[in-house]
Write a structure and sequence with these properties.
Layout (H helix, E strand, L loop, with lengths): L2 E5 L3 H13 L3 E5 L2 H10 L4 E4 L8 H10 L6 E5 L4 H9 L4 E4 L4 H15 L6 E4 L2 E4 L4 E4 L2 E3 L3 H12 L4 E3 H8 L7 H13 L4 E4 L3 E4 L3
Parallel strand pairs: 1-2, 1-3, 3-4, 4-5
Antiparallel strand pairs: 6-7, 7-8, 8-9, 10-12, 11-12
Length: 217
């Protein structure tokens, strides 16, 4: 299930969006001010951000600038009533991937979200294939010979990272950092999760002294 972090201080709109996204099987977290977003992103990772601009404490533009300066590359959509060209340009200058003006069509917003999620996996399809494996990016589900493979939360996080970076070596430090948002993960714990994925025959290579790589077996 893909995760969304929504920054919106309009209570009625926020409640409506949460309800609509949950109906579409998204896991959505809502914050009504910029400082709360910083706290949430420190403790957890998300697949996509949807930010209003005129919000309390830290506005959306400054918030995204801070996140990008800190190395956060999470795809981001600004959802705002600011429709002048200056604001539009600033949104992209600070690192937005898309800019949607209020009022908006919810179905159009879903299309834009799905497009950004696919780009994360460098594909135009909801399915990524590797040998006899298939990972569905829309449902966050892994299949082997079309048989569904149940994964724990940490195994799924690793699987998503590897399928986003097929044939690229991911360092142990990077993987541990990505897994350690909710609780600290050790080098030993990482090895345990890697070995569990290998028991599903996922072709994970150890790159000695560096990390791991998902590539064709």
């Amino acid at each position: 299930m893909n995760t969304i972090l929504l920054l919106e201080d309009d209570t009625i709109l926020a409640e409506t969006l949460v309800e609509l996204f949950e109906a579409e099987n998204y896991n959505i977290t809502h914050a009504n001010n910029g400082e709360k977003v910083l706290e949430l992103t420190f403790n957890a990772s998300y697949d996509i951000y949807i930010f209003d601009v005129n919000v309390p404490n830290i506005d959306g533009f400054e918030l995204l600038k801070q996140l990008r300066d800190a190395g956060d590359t999470t795809p981001t959509i600004f959802l705002t009533a600011l429709n002048d060209i200056k604001s539009f340009a600033k949104g992209f200058d600070v690192g937005a991937d898309d800019y949607v003006k209020k009022p908006f069509d919810f179905d159009e917003l879903l299309v834009r979200i799905n497009s950004l999620l696919k780009k994360q996996y460098k594909t135009y399809s909801n399915d990524i294939y590797l040998d006899t494996f298939r990972f569905n990016t829309e449902k966050d589900e892994l299949y082997h010979h079309e048989n569904f493979i149940p994964l724990s939360a940490y195994e799924l996080k690793l699987t998503k990272l590897f399928f986003k970076n097929i044939n690229n070596t991911l360092s142990k430090e990077y993987l541990i950092d990505e897994l350690s948002h909710e609780k600290e993960i050790s080098d030993g714990s990482l090895r345990v999760y890697i070995n569990k994925l290998r028991k599903h025959n996922l072709p994970l290579q150890t790159i000695k002294g560096v990390g791991y790589r998902l590539s064709s077996s």
